[in-house]
Amino acid sequence: MSLPLFFVFYFFTGILSLTCCTFGSDLNVPTPISCGTRAVDLPDTRKRVLCPANCTLWSLSLFGSGVYASVSSICGAAIHRGIISLSGGPVEVHGLQGRTNYLSSYAHGIQSQSLSQWSSSFTVARTISLPLEVSSQTSSSATVASGAAKKPVKKTAKKPPPTTTANRDCPVDMALLLDSSYNIGQRRFNLQKNFVSKLVAMLKVGTPGPHVGVVQTSETPRTEFYLSNYTTAKDLMFAIKEIPYIGGNTNTGKAILHTVRNFFNPDFGVRRGYPRIIVVFVDGWPSDNVEEAAILARESGINIFFVSVAKPAPEEMSLVSEQDFMRKAVCKDNEFFSFTMPSWFGTNKFVKPLAHKLCSIDQMLCSKTCYNSVNLGFLIDGSSSVGDGNFRLVLDLLLSIARNFDISDIGSRIGAIQFTYDQRMEFNFNEHTTKDNALRALQNIPYMSGGTATGDAINFAVRSLFKPRTGSNKNFLIIITDGQSYDDVRGPAMAAQREGITVYAVGVAWAPMEDLKAMASEPKESHVFFTREFTGLAQFQQPIVRGICRDFTEFN
């Protein structure tokens, strides 16, 4: 991997700038650095630094967008992210692990470069203006004009501020989308920040409780800070206070898309298994459409709450491009995800009810999607009429279905049973809790050969695969058979459905349509599939996946 020649020059200038300064232990005091100082030159993974003015006059080395390779200029990254202007200023640097595929982009007059891989990374954020404490030490050179020694000033010990414990009952990752449009204006924007600060205090931000980041909604969305930048309520409240007003149109849909695609990323502090929430604040109404962005959010397992302030009056509705914008934006149109306030004045009474909603984990319906919250049981005909070659085509269909789902120990699960006259548990829902292992196990199922007793196989699946209860995931059974069963299928299939199992019946060759309809859940036309040839099975992958998602949505 080769880097630009001028990078060598910045390496030495960066090191020199650091050796002329002392990195104290006080994170509140920014340390001056040069324009070329890189994150890798810092001794700490989290540091406040002070960038000089006019850094764009230099040829800055910058690799990445949002997350930068640690060999990049800190000040260059801060300008690129819009954290500081050409006049320089304080920046907070957060070290991250290395990654692959650093993306190039152009922003705020700076072009970053792509990089295939680097060993460490960093992000930048605005510093928060914490109040300075009076130091207990005095300068040795401090004297009065007459030369007499200054009398020591008696100081009273300050009581430490009360510590706030993180709310363990609210383990969520949350993005607050603040309205920074022309519609809200500077004054109401400040009132919005005051409300959000009180909300953060009520939520009791911190590990292992809620983590919060902020994105601004305007003409173009802008991430102010990510989940991992501030993990105490005190720091977060000061950071919110420093957020500047932008102006522009209220492009809420654009801001939601930006947040779904860029904010909820493990590199930025997203925690595995924690519900993800977007809280959208809108003063008036959005300038763009929100439906497409909201669909993407729901499919990504993100719960959207919509806080509407000063909603449009009846005479203003003609100005609104998407009149039912709130209903289309929220996770589910059941009133739980909607919140209204008449204005930004007198909002104290709304803080606690909103905080309570945001911490009601059991009602976060969009955290559970058809991709991450289902158990898929595969009941596979291994009779002699199938044959080894066609059996592989059956497995190919099941593999193509399974690949669509987020299989993990906290997500979706798959299990498989092969049947003839007998049944063989190939693997249950708990044996393979990573996607790669589950798909490998499915692919390597050996063909049995024998007779066909589908009814007994369904009873075996209910008894051995779906019991005892397998958590809160929705249960699906996909049966693939190529012929007539020697036993009754209707009774076992009805018993399975009474247990809450949705049944899909896939028939090939000589499988009777009467049996397929008897086994399948209602409506039959969307749960029964048939093809004369095993080579035709592949066409059913997408209809079955779409059907599972439709059934899942209706179930919830």
Automatic annotation (TrEMBL):
Keywords: Disulfide bond, Glycoprotein, Repeat, Secreted, Signal. The keyword Repeat applies. This is Cochlin. The lineage of its organism: Eukaryota, Metazoa, Chordata, Craniata, Vertebrata. It comes from Sinocyclocheilus rhinocerous. Gene3D superfamilies: LCCL-like domain (2.170.130.20), von Willebrand factor, type A domain (3.40.50.410). One of its GO terms (cellular component) is extracellular region. InterPro entries: ECM_Assembly_Org, LCCL, LCCL_sf, VWF_A, vWFA_dom_sf. PROSITE patterns: LCCL, VWFA.
